[in-house]
Amino acid sequence: MIGYSFRHRRFLDLRHFWLVIVCVLVCAVVQLSAPSRSLARTGVAIRVNPIWSLRVDYVEDLAFSWDGKYFVATSTAKDTEVWRVLDRKRVFVCPAGRSVAFSPDGRWLAVGQTDDSIRIYRTKTWAYNTSIHLELGVPTKLIFTADGRWLIGIADNGRGIHSWRTKTWQEEWHETSPRTMPSFVISSNSGRIWTACGSALRCYDLLTGALLANVELSIQKATAIELLNGSVLVGGNRGELLSVNTVSGNTVSRRSEPYGSINAIAGCEKRSVVCIASFDSMQTPSDKSITAHSVKGHGMLHFWDTSDWSPILSIATDSEGDRCLALTRDGKLLAVGSGSGAIRIWRIRS
After folding, report:
1. Which of 13, 131, 295, 325 is the residue whose CA sits 20 to 30 A from 69?
2. Among the four given CATH numbers 3.40.50.300, 3.40.50.20, 2.130.10.10, 2.40.30.70, the one describing domain 37-349
């Protein structure tokens, strides 16, 4: 009886031992198979996981609907395609274009075409509604105002800015710029449009198109712009990142890492996080516990905590560089479009 108890107890101990070993191995495999990055060094801790991959011939622009239910990608070499995010099903296809935008109420999808026009579609049925012809060339960037009353666009290789009233789709005004505007942002609360032009930041009145301000920046050439927490973020072709207060006009340098050319910026006020897509032709810090090591000529995604402007996380991405970013308004999904035609959707978790 004693021998039986001893053998039985030894059998249970061995079984528990192997159970623990199996659990440890399973956990290790899960950690290695999940290509995510996380860091809790600063006040904001995030975890980034790729959940969805697509491919087009050449990515021009990306956008999420304001409610995050739909995602659209456009290409000049392939059709513009709309997917439903929930089941990742393609729900609509229209001709190729250069720019896309959803209206805040979800009623309209605007697609900037290569034939100097903008096509408007009803998202309820995805039926074609009307077309807007531009005198100044191909629309390269489109944004609806927060109240949905206006559609603003840049055309003529970034040298002209237009405004259309969505009630009639008639043009209200347009202005030209002596320098190229890669993009723009709209401050709906103050009724201002901010554009980056060369080494300057220009401010236009939303209703009239009148030039209100021209702020010279300590930057060679502006390549990206974003509006966040009452400030305009401007990225440059040499990795400069500046923050300009929209009220006082004060400029603060936010750059603390040797980045390459900044191609796109996407921010989320709810999460106090901003993502910067850059093409780095130099080495970033090689501490692998903090950043992903970049080789020469690779794209990078840099995440910053906007509460104290400290770097959170860096991830090496596409060798061709990332051209555009799109972030849902709740900051939970990030779409990244690269020069190679790859589109990746990342889930961001706190």
Report:
1. 131
2. 2.130.10.10
- Provide the residue type at 252 as one letter: V
pLDDT at 318: 67
Among residues 83, 139, 89, the alpha carbon closest in space to that of 114 is found at 139
User: Mean pLDDT, to the nearest integer, of 235-256?
Assistant: 81
pLDDT at res. 12: 44
pLDDT in tens, 295-330: 345 678 889 888 888 888 888 886 667 889 999 999
Q: How far apart are CA 11 and CA 136, in angstroms?
A: 82
Q: Which of 205, 201, 182, 181 is nearest to 193 (CA)?
A: 205
- CA dihedral angle for residue 17, residue 20, residue 26, residue 27, rounded to 10 degrees: -150
Give the Å distances, CA to CA, from 27 to 24, 31, 272: 5, 6, 31
Q: Is the pLDDT of residue 9 over 60?
A: no
Alpha helix (H) residue ranges in the chain? 2-33
d(CA 90, CA 85): 9
SS3 letters across 317-340: CCCCCEEEEEECCCCCEEEEEECC
Q: Which helix (H) or strand (E) holds 187?
A: strand 184-187
Reading the block at residue 114, the tokens are: 């290569």
Closest CA to 274 of 225, 223, 340, 215: 225
CA-wise closest residue to 199 among 260, 246, 240: 240
Q: How many residues are listed for the chain in this entry?
A: 350
Q: Where are the domains of the chain?
A: 1-33, 37-349
How confident is the model over 93-107, as pLDDT tens digits?
999 899 999 999 999
Residue 240's identity, in one-letter code, is E
* Per-residue pLDDT at 123: 96
